[in-house]
Design a protein that fits this description.
single chain; mainly alpha
């Protein structure tokens, strides 16, 4: 039967990366690319709004700290 276009209306991206390899940085770069592509290209299907889902409270707290006040986008090497 499959998934209809309506059910799959929002793009979803997943990253399978080893521990310590920079998953948070990869997520931030994908977000920046999508956001600015949607601003610069009038026919872009890319998102301007994002939801990040964490698998547990430990990961959630780390992500919350990294993304707070745009820190991940401003600090090199984070």
């Amino acid at each position: 039967m499959g998934i209809t276009e309506e059910e799959d209306a929002w793009s979803k991206y997943a990253f399978k990366v080893a521990t310590g390899a920079g998953k948070t940085k990869i997520m931030s770069l994908a977000i920046v690319w999508s956001y600015f592509h949607s601003l610069r290209e009038s026919d872009s299907d890319m998102a301007k709004h994002f939801a990040i889902i964490a698998p547990n409270l430990t990961v959630f707290e780390r992500l919350k700290e990294d993304f707070a006040d745009g820190r991940i986008f401003l600090r090199p090497g984070l």
